[in-house]
Design a protein that fits this description.
alpha+beta, outer membrane lipoprotein receptor (LolB), chain A
Length: 248
């Protein structure tokens, strides 16, 4: 009995350190990434609202396509002043922006990754993010109220502008629910929340997202509709030529 009483506190400490037995923080992070990128490809329409500090709202309609975790294309459909503007990701270090007024595709420089994308609260870096484990390691993990809490730090040599991220994900499904962004001074500057999570055609998907800039009282809300998976997009759909194609 004495031996049992001695071992029990050790087991309790181990369970607190690794809430799901046998899973390290990096294994949990890898599962979160795998849920986010479980499909072969996907497409969706986004209803976007950009809300400034005076509660003024700009509404936009965006079309998004993704293949695997690398290829991503975002194109603005409405209103007229942004129609045809596009973003293309071919790799983490190969991102492009197309502005129809100039009829030219511009590669986004590494020095511009921290800049806001088209007046939203998403940076160019955020637009490119697809698998957190590519750029970050999970240093700490805990569980609370049915969610994992992971603290991520950039890998050595990663071209990242954040000092750290804090992720919250459901313990039952590994679906991402919240991301907190910290700048180089250790201050939390942005917060992404994901809601209306549903299983669509076998894939977990959050249908609403809200990115809030805490220091500017500014936010961007996204609502996804017409979500489709595994349509067999060829790689050629993700190219500079397709980025420049007219909106019909």
């Amino acid at each position: 009995m004495k031996r049992f009483n001695y071992i029990l506190p050790i087991l309790v400490l181990m369970l607190r350190a690794y809430p799901v037995w046998g899973q390290t923080p990096d294994k949990i992070l890898a599962k979160i990434d795998s849920v986010q990128n479980a499909f072969s490809d996907m497409s969706a329409t986004e209803q976007m609202k950009i809300i400034d500090e005076n509660s003024q709202v700009k509404e936009r309609v965006v079309e998004i396509r993704q293949k695997g975790k690398e290829l991503r294309m975002v194109r603005f459909m409405e209103p007229a002043d942004v129609r045809g503007v596009g973003f293309l990701r071919l790799a983490s270090d190969r991102q492009y922006l197309y502005l129809p007024a100039f009829r030219k595709v511009r590669r986004i420089a590494s020095s511009s990754k921290s800049e806001n994308f088209m007046g939203t609260d998403f940076s160019n870096e955020d637009m490119s993010q697809s698998a957190y484990s590519d750029d970050y390691t999970a240093q700490e993990m805990s569980t609370q109220n049915g969610q994992f809490r992971l603290m991520l730090e950039p890998k050595s040599g990663a071209d990242i502008n954040y000092e750290k991220l804090v992720l919250l994900a459901d313990t039952s499904t590994y679906v991402l629910r919240k991301v907190e962004y910290y700048n180089r001074s250790g201050e939390k500057t942005k917060e992404l929340t994901i809601g209306d999570v549903e299983k669509i055609d076998g894939y977990w998907m959050g249908k609403t997202m809200r990115m809030k800039s805490l220091d500017e009282n500014h936010e961007t809300k996204l609502e996804l509709s017409d979500i489709k998976f595994n349509q067999g997009f060829p790689d050629s759909d993700f190219s500079e030529r397709m980025l420049k194609r007219p909106i019909r």
